[in-house]
Amino acid sequence: MPRVTVASRRPARSRVAPARPAPGGGARGQAGTNSKHLVPTFTEDAVKRVWQIIKQNKITVVDLKFNDLPGLWQHFSIPVEEVAQSAKEGIWVDGIGFDGSSIRGFQKIQESDMNLYPDPTTAVLDPVCETPTLSLICDIYDPLTKEAYSRDPRFIARKAEGYLKKTGIADVSYWGPEPEFFIFDDIRFDSTENAGYYFIDSVEGEWNSGKDEKPNLGYKPRYKEGYFPVPPHDQLQDIRSEILLKARAVGVPVEKHHHEVATAGQCEIDMRYSTLTRMADNLLMLKYIIKNVARQHNKVATYMPKPLFGDNGSGMHTHQSLAKAGNNLFFDKNGYAKISQMCKWYIGGLLKHAPAILAFAAPTTNSYKRLVPGYEAPVNLAYSARNRSAICRIPVYVDYPKSKRVEFRAPDPSCNPYTTFAAMLMAGLDGIQNRIDPGQPVDENIYEMSAERAPKQVPGSLEESLNALEKDHAFLLKGDVFTKDVIEVWLEYKRQEIDKVRLRPHPYEFYLYFDA
């Protein structure tokens, strides 16, 4: 569906201004850029299309969705009668208010009022609600200044796309994430002063091979052998197909689905590539569908990167490329793996800034239980064709010029795609602008290389990645794509999680030390 931009309330006045220091010493929301074309605008035709969907599907409720800073969709719903049929009325002009102090990473209580402006090009029939509901993704604004909100992740993504065009390097970037996830049958967890535990169960789990299930029908995928046996080993085929159909019905172009490597219901569903902000929109819609379809089957889906010990975790390998005037700038028929010099510089930027990128792309303490050697973990700061132990891989499935891309393998699906994609793009552009040499490709098994020859590795903890971001974020601030307040609040918010995990006794510590 062609993307239409959403119209400004006061076209004669820009809603955005240059980023300014936060008063009172604390980080607060700011306008993110002085680029007028990034201010949302909307057209009568876009609003008419919304009403066509409303009438065709007999919509009674409109659901307004937006993204908090860590990456979870938030929402509230209004009666369809509250949606004006003209672009000059109602929420299209005035937006609709919400309490920003109750949203993670947003406002303080004394500055809580915020406004949502729906993007009419995102309108679809909600794929999971029983009541006929229209789904609209929204952008966030300050109600006093009428400026776009610097901590709105979707605004950061749109600014990254705008900055790419301003550089003149390319017209557009294309993104293709591969989110992995688990579908479990049971999950219990708790952490109190005198107890801490979790319990996971799955009808597919190899640990249930000897369980009396009255009857136990076998076919439990062995550890690291879930890729790709057919049913009955794969007991989630029909659920994933249902997800595929629901996603495609709302314009999320799913290309394939399959069981993944781990036992106990690990899956992957891939989408056809799209532009940066649109792909982030699509990914959140896909996650929303997956979680709800799983629940409808009395199962639960999780994007936690490493829920199981001793088997593969869930990553989100992210394919990316740049194009100008319809030409893929990453293709060169004479280059290594048929990539261009520009692509090498882009990879150089990814490798140089990878530790800082991971503060957004692998944003949980649990992420670093996945990013360890083995299990196909992409921990090595190197690039290669086909080599899945390198953090940057150049797929060589086909020779078609438009398909040439680099796959950055470190992200996991717990991340916020808007900020993660933007951070990767900014790192790649910095590599191009500064002609950063990524060195020679590594086409051998890195895990078998000597310590002297092996490339450096990614940070081993969230704390290390956050420290890297604190030291290395100038590349993110170019064009006001990320602003200082976003970096500051992200560091403050995520560092709180480190102590919350570090200060609690771990269940395995009792096994190791209780008899001391």
Question: What is the 3D shape?
Answer: globular
Structural class: alpha+beta
Tally of structural domains: 2
Q: At the first level of CATH, what is the class of the largest domain?
A: Alpha Beta
String of helices and strands:
HEEHEEEEHEEEHEEEHEEEHHEEEHHHHH
Q: How would you explain this protein's 3D organization?
A:
With 516 residues, the protein is of the alpha+beta class. It has helices at residues 44-56, 91-94, 153-167, 237-249, 276-296, 341-361, 367-370, 417-433, 462-471, 474-477, 484-502, 507-513, and strands spanning 61-67, 73-79, 96-99, 113-118, 124-125, 133-141, 172-184, 186-191, 196-201, 254-259, 266-271, 274-275, 300-302, 316-324, 327-328, 380-385, 390-394, 406-408. The chain has two domains: 23-149, Ubiquitin-like (UB roll) (Roll), CATH 3.10.20.70; 172-188 and 227-504, Glutamine synthetase/guanido kinase, catalytic domain (Creatine Kinase, Chain A, domain 2), CATH 3.30.590. The strands form three sheets. Strands 7, 10, 11, 12, 13, 14, 15, 16, 17 and 18 form a ten-stranded mixed β-sheet that branches. Helix 5 packs antiparallel against helix 8 (417-433). It is globular, with a radius of gyration of 23 Å. The protein starts with 43 loop residues before the first helix and ends with a helix.
